[in-house]
What we know:
Nucleotidyltransferase, domain 5; 5 strands; globular
Amino acid sequence: MEDLLELLAEPYDSKRPVVCFDEKPVQLLSDVRAPRLPRPGQTAQRDYEYRREGTANIFMAVEPLAGWRQVDVTAQRTKLDFANQMKQLVNLHYPEAECIRVIMDNLNTHVPASLYAAYAPAEALRLVKRLEFHYTPKHASWLNPAEIEIGVLSGQCLDRRMGEMQRLTAETRAWQRERNQHGVKIHWRFTTEDARHKLEHLYSEPLCKT
C-alpha cells in the first residue's frame, strides 16, 4: 500500500510516467420501444423494458498528473487484450518514456506472462523492460485512481442504454476527447501518513504509540 501512496505522491516525470489502469464490464442494452423525444419543458421518456445485446469491456488508462486518459472498448478482457493495452502504452502513448509505472489490481491477467502469451519472446521482453507493475493490495482497489476515472465515465457517459459496441466506442471516445482537451487531472490526497493513522488495522504489526 505504501508503495502506491509514495508513487502517487511523486511529482510529474515525463520520462517515468505513473499510469493507472483498470477495466470495467459493460452490459449492452437496447430499447424495445423507441423513446419519446422531449417536448418543450419536458424530459425524454423511455420505456422501462429493454433488450440485452450482450456485453463489452472497457479498458481505462489514466495519467493523473498529466490530465490524460485513454478509453478502449473491447469484446472481452483476456490476457491477449491486456497485452495489447500494455503494448499501446509503450509504442503509441509513451514511446519516449524510459519506464512506464503502471498501477493496477491483482487480476490474473495483469502479469508479464500475458505479454509472453501474446508476443514472441524478444518482443515481450522489450515491452516488459519498459513497464514497471505496481499492484493494489487485496480488497483495496480504491487505491487506484483509475477507479475514480471509471466512476466519472460511468456517471457522465455510461448512464444511458447503448445496444452496440460501435455506439459505446463512439460515446466513450467523445467523452475521452473532451476530458483530455480540458486536461482534467486527478489530485490524489490520501497520503502515507493518512494510511498509517486511519488504516492502522491493515498493517501486519501494530504501530508504536507514544
